[in-house]
Amino acid sequence: MGNNLKGVERFLKALNREEPDRVPIWELIIDRPVIKSLYGDISYADVVEILDLDGITAGEDVKMREIEKGKFVCEWGITWGITEFGVVYPLKGPIKSKKDLIDYQPPDPDADYRLNTLEEYIDRFKGEKAIVLLSHDAFEFSHYLVGGMANLFRLYYKDPEAAHTLAEKIVEYKSRVIERAIKAGADVILSGDDYADKNGPLVSPRMFKIFIMPYLKRVVDTAKRYGKPFIKHTDGKIWKILDMIVATGIDGLHPIEPCAGMDILKVKRMYGDRICVIGNIDCSYVLPLMSPNDVEEVVKETIAKVAPGGGYILSSSNSIHPGVKPENFLVMIKAAKRYGRYPISEELIREYGKRNFYSKIFKF
What order do you get walking across the sheet with 55-59 strand by strand? Predict the structure, then answer.
């Protein structure tokens, strides 16, 4: 089969667990230092076009005001810091008491500027590339708003009703933005909340089932009402909660981190009849530190293991962050296009299907 599909067709076929003409390629985020090193002062959208990626990610637009050098407050009332590379991170939230929580109202999901970036990408790429809205469920914004995970977990134990009240407010906002995005032309919806680190989930499976899973299902159901596929992004070692994540009805799982002990072949064998697997090209060690040849070997092995039969989208194991060698990023894309053509080479499958490159660098 020739490479004759458009990126959006390729992407959606993979999410539907079918074989397109080749393995789709996409990145959740490509940070500015990598872009600048490769191409100078151009946009993320320009990079997607230059590299002929199959999807592009748009977050919702949120106004920020600087309160002092390097500190900003967003419409949610969350205070953010910013790294030298332009990556923002939460510092404190506006909810300090039960009264704050009861009185709290999220920003206006219908603000006319909320989808400016998404609409720009739709105007430029609709019908050519998959337009992915990066949204959220309730977990991350809950801990942002109350000033950290420790405070949120305290709510889970001491005032579960308040925790649910907060989650309801967040998920109502997020569901409305998702509806608007779909009506505007988004092809795929994604939740970016992280539930785990490399050691395991941040909450017990029981707490996940009570406080997180219902709100993930709400945003998944919102997308499904409009016939749009849903990708769940979460970092970390998620084996203990993966059954519940898949049970919400997601269509794809990203990024399946090898450094956290997530074996993408095992994930596909267990859940490949229900979800597309996405990612797994390690960005913690391989893309930042290893040689271009090593990167190509990892790409070949990953394609040989999980691309046959469809249901795989190739990306890094998180994002193209400032530590990634730009040349390794390019090698990853070139190798994916060369070796990801369907039908996947039987010789490649025989030679690489039983290898385990990551076992040499990650010990579990």
Answer: 55-59, 130-135, 188-191, 230-233, 252-254, 276-278, 312-313
